[in-house]
Amino acid sequence: MLIGFRVKNWRSIKNEISFSMLASQERQHGERLANMAKYRSRLLPAALMFGGNAAGKSNFIHAISFMKDFILRSPQMNHGIRGYDPYAFDETTRIGPSEFEVELFLENYIYRYNFMIDAKSVLQESLVRILTTREQILFERKSSEPFFLDSSFKDDERKRLEFAFLGTQQNELFLSNTVDQNIDSFKCIFTWFDHNLQIINPSTQLMPVPEILSVCNQYMPLLDTSVRRLEFREVSRSYIPKELLENIDNKLSANGAALLGNEIGERFFLTKSEDNSIDLRLLFSFHSDTNGKEYKINFSEESDGTKRLFDVLPAFVGDIDKTTILIDEIDRSLHSIITMQLFHFFLERSQKCHDRQIIATTHDLQLMTQDLFRRDEMWIFERREDGTSLIPLSDFVDIRYDKDIRKSYLEGRMGGVPQVMLPLPNLEDCE
C-alpha cells in the first residue's frame, strides 16, 4: 500500500511537495484505518485533492504516472529520459534535476525508493528498507560515487546484482534492470508499480474483462443509469485501424486480453488465443421499455456520465485487492450524489477490508465534508508564483470535527480557490 509520495521540479511543481497516506492522531472515522502494527502507524483508505483549475492536481497524478512508466519501461540506449518535463518558468529548474520518491508498505516492511533525473541520465537512485529500529540502505547509486550494495546480499546474488549494475545504462534505473535480468531481490517494488498501482485519467479505463462486466452489471442498474445489462459481442476486425491492431497484437501474449476505448466512446475487448489469432468484441448496453422489451445500443451512444461510471465503478466496488488507485477528475460527468455514494460504499467496506486505497482529484465541493472524510484525507492544491503547493486540511488547527469546512474553503481561508477577476459586461455594447 502507498504510504507517501514526494516530487520536486516537475511540470507546475517547482519546489518539493509531499503527500502522505499516514493517518494523523485524530479519532474521527478511525475504524476504517489499516494498521501497520509493528510501526505503530495507520494508513488511510482514501484521499481527496481539491484546488482551482491549473493548480497542479493533474500534474501530481502525471508525476506518479511518469514514475510508474519510467520504472516499467526500460529506455533505449543513448536516448535520454523520455518524457522529462521539469518546471519551465525558471532558468535553474529548466535544466535542473527532478526528484521522485515513494514510500510503500509491502510484505510487512516499509520501503523508500527514490531517484533523481535530468534530461539525459539518472543522477541518483536508492532503495531503503525501514526497520523498526533503523534504516537499511539496500542499494545506493550516485553518479559521482561508487555503487553501494548492502552487505546482506552475498555470494551468487551479490555477484548478479553487481553485474546488473555494470550493465545498467546511464538513462536506465538499476531497479528496472535487475528485473529485466530476472533478479528478484527488489521485484516487490517493481511488482507494486506494475500490478498494484492503477491510474485512471479522464479518458482511460481501469479493469480487464470479465471483472468489469460482472461488477457493472451488478451495480449500474442501481445508480440511475437506465442500463439493465452490458455485453461484449463479436465484431469485425475492421472496427479498429490496422496499425493499432498490429501494435496490440505484438504486445499481447497468448491467452492475453486487453480493454480498449476510442475517441467516440466505444469499448473493445480483445483476446489472443494460443494460435495467436485475435478475437475482437464490442461493448453493447441493453435497456428495457415499460413492457419489458429489451433494446440494444452501442455503448458509445450512452451519456458521458454512464461511460465514466463504467470506467471508475470497479475501483469502488470491484474485487481488486491490495491496489492503490489514482483517479484524476473523479467528478467528471458524474452527479455529486453518485460520487458520494461510491465513496460511501468504499469507505464502509474499508472498515472490514483494509486492502485498497483510492486517491482522487476533484472540483466537487459536495465531497468536502467531515461527515464522510477525515481532515487528513482532504488536501488542497494551490498555484503560487513559485509553482504548485500542497496542504492537508489537518494542518489547519482551527478546523474542528463539527466545522463546515466547505464554507471556510469558499471564503478563501484555506487557499486553493480560483482568483476570478472577470469584469461585469458593458451593457451599452448591446444597444
Walk me through this protein's architecture.
With 431 residues, the chain is α+β, with helices and mostly antiparallel strands. Helices cover 24% and strands 28% of the residues. The protein has helices at residues 57-72, 91-95, 155-166, 174-180, 187-196, 211-219, 242-251, 304-317, 336-349, 405-410; strands spanning 2-8, 17-20, 34-36, 41-43, 46-50, 98-106, 109-117, 122-130, 135-142, 148-149, 197-200, 229-234, 257-261, 267-272, 278-288, 294-298, 323-327, 356-361, 378-384, 387-392. The strands form four sheets. A seven-stranded antiparallel β-sheet has the order 2-1-6-7-8-9-10. α6 crosses α8.
Keywords, separated by commas or semicolons:
6-stranded mixed β-sheet; 7-stranded antiparallel β-sheet; single chain; 20 strands; 431 residues; alpha+beta; globular
Task: Compile the SSE list and pairings.
Blueprint: E1 2-8, E2 17-20, E3 34-36, E4 41-43, E5 46-50, H1 57-72, H2 91-95, E6 98-106, E7 109-117, E8 122-130, E9 135-142, E10 148-149, H3 155-166, H4 174-180, H5 187-196, E11 197-200, H6 211-219, E12 229-234, H7 242-251, E13 257-261, E14 267-272, E15 278-288, E16 294-298, H8 304-317, E17 323-327, H9 336-349, E18 356-361, E19 378-384, E20 387-392, H10 405-410
Parallel strand pairs: 5-18, 5-19, 11-17, 17-18
Antiparallel strand pairs: 1-2, 1-6, 3-4, 6-7, 7-8, 8-9, 9-10, 12-15, 13-14, 14-15, 15-16, 19-20
Helix pairs in contact: 6-8
